[in-house]
Write a structure and sequence with these properties.
It contains nine helices and 13 strands. It is an alpha+beta fold and 308 residues long. The strands form two sheets. Strands 1, 2, 3, 4, 5, 6, 7, 12 and 13 form a nine-stranded mixed β-sheet that branches. Helix 1 packs antiparallel against helix 2, helix 2 packs antiparallel against helix 3 and helix 8 crosses helix 9.
């Protein structure tokens, strides 16, 4: 396999318009993406595992309050933060995920613990939080997760009595990463605060292996961001892997079919980051923009927000 390493990350997709972005805010987003990318890349460069790399990158994004995950998670209908995350190891097809958890500082770290320290794949709500305490993972008070921007969005959504996908202009708030390490192993991880003003314990695609996250050494590693219900119904991440495995398509071809054809046909807006077994990177989206960054081997880091 040699020294081939790749990592791609995202901080959400949706209606991200230049007209709504100040230079200062854009610089903050790009800095956040760059730091997360570097955190993951540094692990790969030093010979570390793809699983460690995607976890590190996603934890950085969770700790960065502009993204809807961890610290910047949106408010649900009751004014709380319900967070979801997953991680998958392409070498073994092992996966760990959590949904509807509150006050856990880094949900992706808890998803990793589920994968490594339990016999389960997906833990939910209070049970997942109890497991996090047993694993002695860090918790934070509600105040840690409070950001004025998210609070204002929630208040607006309450007034309009509607669910928001993140901003009123539909930014899908999810963060994620996909990576290939020197040993040829793929991994992916995804984390989200879900929808603003969500009710009834709603869960999207982020914590569901095969929908929002997937990794298989034979094909690719994928982390999605978008309208979760449609990504679940389309089994997006697994579908791309299947197109590669069963039809022999390239990563680019498979991504194009799923993101620009299959999803569009059912009104599924969003995007994803993908890395294949050779280290090729794909970051397709069918929305106005997607916060994204990538780096392959010793090449330049690519950090983008809008369509090229």
């Amino acid at each position: 396999m040699g020294q081939n390493i790749s990592i791609a990350i995202h901080g959400g997709a949706g209606t991200i318009l230049r007209s709504n972005m100040t230079p200062e805010l854009q610089a903050q987003y790009e800095a956040g993406l760059g730091q997360a990318l570097q955190a993951g890349y540094a692990i790969l460069e030093s010979g570390g595992s793809s699983v460690d790399a995607v976890q590190a990158a996603v934890m950085h994004l969770e700790d960065f309050q502009l993204f809807n995950a961890g610290k910047g998670a949106v408010f649900n209908n009751r004014g709380k933060h319900e967070m979801d995350a997953s991680i998958m190891d392409g070498r073994t097809l092992a996966a760990g995920a959590v949904c509807g958890v509150g006050n856990v500082r880094n949900p992706v770290q808890l998803a990793r613990a589920v994968m490594d320290q339990s016999e389960h794949v997906l833990l939910a709500g209070a049970g997942a939080e109890e497991f996090a305490r047993q694993m002695e993972l860090p918790f934070e008070a509600d105040s840690y997760f409070f950001t004025q921007q998210r609070y204002d969005q929630w208040q607006q959504a309450l007034l309009e009595d509607k669910v928001q996908l993140d901003h009123s202009d539909k930014k899908f708030g999810t963060v994620g990463a996909a990576a290939l390490d020197m040993a040829g192993n793929l991994a992916a991880a995804t984390s989200t605060g879900g929808m603003t003003n969500k009710k009834f314990g709603r869960v999207g695609d982020s914590p569901i292996p095969g929908a929002g996250t997937y990794a298989n050494n034979a094909t690719c590693a994928i982390s999605c961001t978008g309208h979760g219900e449609l990504f679940i119904r389309s089994v997006v991440a697994y579908d791309i892997s299947c197109l590669m495995e069963y039809k022999g398509l390239s990563l680019q071809e498979a991504c194009n079919i799923v993101v620009h054809d299959k999803l569009v046909r059912i009104g599924g807006e969003g995007g994803l980051v993908a890395v294949d077994y050779s280290g090729n990177i794909c970051m397709p989206f069918n929305s106005e923009g997607m916060y994204r960054a990538s780096k392959r081997n010793a090449g330049e880091a690519v950090i983008k927000i809008y369509k090229d």
